[in-house]
């Protein structure tokens, strides 16, 4: 009987759709795909501070969306006060999916080749920022401060617009007990927070699970947390699917 490995996807099913299609299009790929989100997201009520920043949208020069969820929850908040977007604004998305979601909202944005804060900071329009104002749309509970720190160093005045909250998911029967039987080939993780949630949920040694992550920064964090097989892959669905295929074929040869 041919073996059937399992690949673990850790985002919500709605965010995995393109990756699932890419995997399904690979000939002879015999994999079980298990979706187990590590984080739950929800919109937050608009506070007076949030409202003031939204009403002042036309005073900003640059608006940066740092994730898909920032677009999903942030555009609705902005749209409630701005039926037409201010003409002079420059918009930015951290990746291709973020850009697609913004385009659906009528917003054309710049996207870096490297889908990361570092990639955003390499864009030409974000190099010289003396006297400029930047609004970063993101989640409520912290996250990396690196983007803001560098923008401030370049002379910008930077504000945050938090538009959603997140919390770790829980699995009452034990995380591994929710997975399909068979060999767990790899797990795909997209953020440091998700990675820490995975470690908290795992009821087996970290070194037994191979990971695919989007950056060397996250690779280093994963190895610090006990994972010793960590691949770095650009977070484009077709590229992630190709990385999964390569790992699977290497294991089956």
How would you portray this structure in words?
The protein is α/β, with parallel strands linked by helices and 253 residues long. It has two domains: 5-38 and 171-252, Rossmann fold (3-Layer(aba) Sandwich), CATH 3.40.50; 42-167, Rossmann fold. The chain contains nine helices and ten strands. α1 (13-24) crosses α9 (237-252) and α3 packs parallel to α4 (96-104).
- The pLDDT mean sits at 91
Class of secondary structure makeup: alpha/beta
Catalogue the unreliable spans.
none
How is the CATH topology of the largest domain named?
A: Rossmann fold
CATH architecture of the largest domain: 3-Layer(aba) Sandwich
Strand/helix succession: EHEEHEHEHHEHEEHEHEH
C-alpha-based Rg, rounded: 20 Å
Spatial strand order of the main sheet: 2-1-8-9-10
Morphology call: elongated
**How many strand elements?**
10
Distance between the termini: 16 Å
CATH class call of the largest domain: Alpha Beta
Structure summarized in a few sentences:
By secondary structure, this protein is of the alpha/beta class. It has helices spanning 13-24, 48-55, 68-79, 96-104, 117-121, 146-153, 192-201, 216-224, 237-252, and strands spanning 5-9, 31-35, 39-43, 62-65, 90-93, 133-139, 157-168, 184-188, 211-213, 230-232.
Helix and strand layout, with pairings?
Layout: E1 5-9, H1 13-24, E2 31-35, E3 39-43, H2 48-55, E4 62-65, H3 68-79, E5 90-93, H4 96-104, H5 117-121, E6 133-139, H6 146-153, E7 157-168, E8 184-188, H7 192-201, E9 211-213, H8 216-224, E10 230-232, H9 237-252
Parallel strand pairs: 1-2, 1-8, 4-5, 4-6, 6-7, 8-9, 9-10
Antiparallel strand pairs: 3-7
Helix pairs in contact: 1-9, 3-4
